Every structure is written in C-alpha cells, then in structure tokens.
Amino acid sequence: MPDISPFFGIVIAMYYRDHAPAHFHAFNGEHEATIDIQTGQVNGNFPKHALAHVL
Q1: Which residues contact 20 (CB under 8 A, 6 or more apart)?
Q2: Which ranges constitute the DSSP H helices of the chain?
Q3: Residue 44's closest CA among 24, 17, 22, 19?
Q4: Cα(10)–Cα(50) distance, rounded to whole angstroms?
Q5: 8 vs 21, 25, 42, CA distance in Å?
Q6: What is the pTM of this model?
Q7: Residue 11: which pLDDT band, with cuts at 50, 70 and 90?
Q8: Among the four residues 6, 15, 20, 23, which has the most C-beta atoms within 10 Å?
C-alpha cells in the first residue's frame, strides 16, 4: 500500500491510476473511508474523532 502519512493510528494512502474523481483513502483499524480531494465528500465508515484529524 502506498502510504502517504501515518499519524494517530490513521493511515492516509493514494493509489496510482485509481478511479476518478481524485481522492485518497484513510484507514483506522477496521474502518476505511475515501475522501474526495476537490469536494471533501467522505464515503465510508470512519469514527468522527479520527475523521476530524483527517479533514
């Protein structure tokens, strides 16, 4: 996995040639979410306290 930034138990990753729109993945334990870079829309199941750090 191409990790960009691990912090507070959260891992941010981006994948080469992943589907549009441009987004990144956030992982925290068993939780995963994708975040649209342009709009900030969050898709997935992520704890609120961890999501606040990601955003």
Answers
A1: none
A2: 48-54
A3: 24
A4: 7
A5: 27, 15, 19
A6: 0.84
A7: very high
A8: 23
